Amino acid sequence: MERRDVANTVSGTTVGGHLVQAQHIGSVHLHQPEELPRPHQVRRPHGPFVNREPELAALTAALGRVETGELGVVVFTGLGGVGKTELIARFTEEHRARFPGGDLYADLQAYRHQGGVDLPELLAGFLRALGAESPAVEAERFTKFRTVTAGRRCLFFLDNVEHAAEVRALLPSGGLVVVASRRRLPALRMDGAEVRQLGPLSPEAGAELVRTWPGSEHGTEEELSALVELCGGLPLALSVVGSQLLDHENLPIGEVVAELHDREGRSAVLNDEDSDLGPTYDAVYDRLPEQGKALYHLIGVHPGPFLSAGLAQAAGIERAARVLSELRATHLVDEVEDDDPSEKRFRAHDVVRLHAYGRVRELPDRAELLARVVAYFRGRASRADRAMGPRLRLQDPSGDGLPGFPSGTAALEWLHAERANLRAVVEAAAEQGWHGEVWRLCESLWPLYHGRKLYQDWIATHRLGVESAHWDNQPDAVVRMRNQLARAHYERKEYPLAAEQLALAAEQLPLVARRQVAGVLHETDGLLCLADGRPGRAVERFALALEENRGDPHGEIVQSYNVAQALIADGRPDEALTVLAGAAAQAGATGDDDMLMKLPLVTARAHRALGQLFPAVAHAEDCVRRAKARSQYAKEAQAHTLLVSLAAELDDAELAERSRARLRELAG
């Protein structure tokens, strides 16, 4: 390898006098400590706060132990709306500077499906926030999380926990873990946790909170106490009522109390354990403007946890962004932080969602509103999928009139931010028997599931997709759904399950209209042949897939890529280079950027197998450049891993260190 000339140069930062913190000294590179991300995910407190001094003291005491190197765990249990989240937000705001590693938040309800929580995906989000790459193998994420959190003092807020095992699986190596749950979790005391039950505000504390509202001085002590009692002493209910009082300056507290008393005898739709606040939220709902009520209906109908202005507008709500802001001001929804900067998302408190569900249960156009929700997500998912580049798609384009995406990266971030909504919508559509919507949504979710390895969502939705494709009498779709399901099992190394799906899919082939659909089965079968050490058989299967894709440029390139990998594994790298050269020329002519990124890595492996190390380095570095430009960090890591091996064979310490340094960055 060609070497740079050595020059006596020094670069770095002057610390004091003639002392320099060096970065470069001649040709020697001294690595400075990387500045790690410091996430701030716990929301800011909303407003006045009273009567939680013992709980704040418990958190402060736990923080003191954390600062000596211990792991701290504090659990708060209590009714929905009792103020658990506000308490933790207040503590975090006051002590953020004492968490140099940042503060992270996870709502387990957003990851919960059919009683279980997708803990690997939750950890993947934590790892990304901490600047670390999430391993593709789910089991490795737990050990990676413990490694990354060792020596970093972070606060982890786990909201809506239901079982002690969920907390145990998410414990870091250090820092403070704060848990909020409606259920009592005494078993966590065995893990050293402090478990405290958060009760409703006392009449005195509730009245103190109400007195912070402008205009509350016009209410008598009896009226203030009655209002606190009617709101169950729950800060959330008091905040919602208080926000409406502020919006109606001439509305006396006594009038509100009288109205709530009048509603107490009516049938309530909200029952949260031993709390009955249906009348309170009925009164809040009745005072909402027309579009506010329409958004409240959407909260009750939407099967997923997150709202956006785009969804609200598609549901027929006028001035959707403004209405969302109004409901946020009244504490009916909160803004949610995620990795997608293109769109604000909001979430209603579970108590509000339950009440909203009761309000729309008998709504005449409930099914029509749900259909609009499903159509919105299917349309936007379709547009996101197509923004990711060319591939076989059975469905026609949809989503006309909905916003598109400026790039494939932006599309993938949107899909990932909406993953909980997308799974919930698939399940809701299946319950309604809207079978065409189900399998089409699943087809569009391929780039999300394949790119981000959301295996639990992937498998659950595609089981429904298979069933819906059968009901919709679409053999091509049945094969497509079973193949995508097989790929999930293949990536989890569940090879017998993958083979079972392929066998069931093959039964439909006599009914299939498109040759490429048969090609996808040959491709996955080829991958299974490679996995169990039959590269010659894999070459045959990929060659069949290539023939089925003739006439589709992207399909031809992908299958040529697969054939080349199998040829290298079968000891025929010279043949692989011939195949790769043709594929690269075709990818360049058609502008297939995704494959132009992937092909150089396989080309590098073929050159290495032939002992041609310098061309191998050149092609691997080409893959690095292209992968980095497309934010495809997993592919970039594969290329750097190959470069490290090539550097060892070339005795090139500079190349090895450069690639190792980048791998450390990618791994966090």
Entry keywords:
668 residues, alpha/beta, five-stranded parallel beta sheet, three-stranded antiparallel beta sheet, 30 helices, disordered N terminus
Structure at a glance:
The chain is of the alpha/beta class and 668 residues long. It has 30 helices and twelve strands.
Silhouette = globular
Structural class: alpha/beta
How large a portion of the residues is in β-strands, by DSSP E? Answer: 5-15%
The largest pleated sheet is described as: 5 strands, parallel
* Uncertain stretches: 1-33, 264-275
Give the fraction of residues assigned to helices.
55-70%
Q: How do the strands line up in the largest sheet?
A: 5-8-9-4-10
Account of the 3D structure:
The chain is of the alpha/beta class and 668 residues long. 58% of the residues lie in helices and 8% in strands. The protein is built from 30 helices and twelve strands. Strands 5-8-9-4-10 form a five-stranded parallel β-sheet, with helices on both faces. A hairpin with an 8-residue loop joins strand 11 and strand 12. Helix 27 packs parallel to helix 29 and helix 28 packs antiparallel against helix 29. The longest helix has 22 residues. The N terminus is likely disordered.
